[in-house]
Amino acid sequence: MTGRATAGRRLIRWLTTPLPQPPPALRRGPLRPGVFGSRLRSTRLAGQLGVALGLTFGVCFLTGLLSHLMQHPPAGFAWPSRPIGFYRFTQGLHVVTGLASAPLLGAKLWSVYPRLFTWPPVRSIAHAAERAAVGVLVAAALFQVVGGVLNITRWYTPMPFFFTAGHYWVGWLAIGALLVHVGVRLPVTRAALTRSAMSARPGGLSRRGLLTGVAAATGLLTLTTAGQTLRPLSGLALFAPRRPGTGPQGLPVNKTADNAGVRALALNPSYRLTVIGPTRHTDLDLDGLHAMTQHTAELPIACVEGWSATGRWTGVRLRDLVALVGVDPTRATVVAESLETGGRYRTSIVAAPHVRDPLTLVALRLNGEPLHLDHGYPARLIAPNRPGVLQTKWLTSITVREES
Fold first, then answer.
1. Does the keyword Transmembrane feature in the UniProt annotation (predicted)?
2. What is the pLDDT of residue 373?
């Protein structure tokens, strides 16, 4: 035990031993003393902004993790079908807190960036590692915020990778780096937050004024985007790419039939929906689907980009189609397949809670009219508490799996 303790002390001494420093003649430009003279910058200000940013980042990470688990469920994970609007709420909160992080992140970086030019640049190996960790945190935070904005505007050209995967893994990197940073800086931040606030600079902006401005910018950005989820605020949704009430039949559309390349197949008079069970299958044309008992449900389309809109959907209950092939709907999962020939979401798995839910429909009508082609005509899946990318449009087959 003594040997291990000695080795540990030696490692600490090695990590904290001062390194040879560059000559003072190199201390030029932003490295010169007194270059950053604003009295607004302080450990207290950085701490206050950090607390706010930590809250928005934390909420954004947790809600984003829920969305990922819904779209890519691990073994044994079953997302519930109720409450109906839970995913709508969590994903709207995810996007709103992500956007609210933008002004907070900008102000936080402004308050601390002079520390990038402290002298000496690197004091020890431990100091170098701490600065590298901060660099990872800053890079990951900027990637998440900028990438999220590009995603909700559907501008993927600057991103030569699948956004969802990149956003998910860098999210873990960002939250890990944030926790490490909090652990390192917590004593300093706690001390700074408990000290009295600095006095305002005569004739200039005070710390309180700066924080008020950042809070106002954050609130305004939230207010002008939340309307894509909250209908009462839809008139204020200046920065929302999709708004309730827009699009065919009053609902927004991300991918049209032409974008998906399914127009001819969807309009083909010989269209059939195939329901495949373990021991038998059945083919249903549109007349056959309309001949079955019809049900209506008011359900939202809740997109991963944050917007959502409610429609009145009419069609056949999924559990009734499952029963046609001799499977108990309470013990079934379903693979729904689209007429699309490619794409990451041309198929989706409907877990047991949604299969047996009476609100899960193969919809044929929307708001009292036949489905618009861009909303999935001739038939589409619509289920409660489920991301829009999994509400498969232009259904061609339903494969039923019986659970043991």
1. yes
2. 98
Cα–Cα distance measured from residue 262 to residue 379, given in angstroms and rounded to the nearest whole number? 13
Q: What is the pLDDT of residues 291-330, one digit of tens each?
A: 999 999 999 999 888 888 899 999 999 999 999 999 999 9
Which phi and psi angles does 275 have, rounded to 5°?
A: -110, 115
Domain holding 299, by residue range, is 251-402
The answer to whether residues 69 and 151 belong to one domain is: yes
Q: pLDDT tens-digit profile of 338-389?
A: 999 988 899 999 999 999 999 999 999 999 999 999 999 999 999 999 999 9
Same domain, 226 and 257: no
Number of domains the chain contains: 2
Cα–Cα dist 251/366, whole Å: 10
Q: Is the pLDDT of residue 390 over 60?
A: yes
CB crowding 233-244: b at 16 or more within 10 Å, else e: bbeebebbbbbb
Tokens of 282: 């059945």
pTM metric for this prediction: 0.86
Who's near 23: CB < 8 A, 6+ residues apart? none
User: Could you check whether the bond before residue 74 is cis, i.e. omega within 30 degrees of 0?
Assistant: no
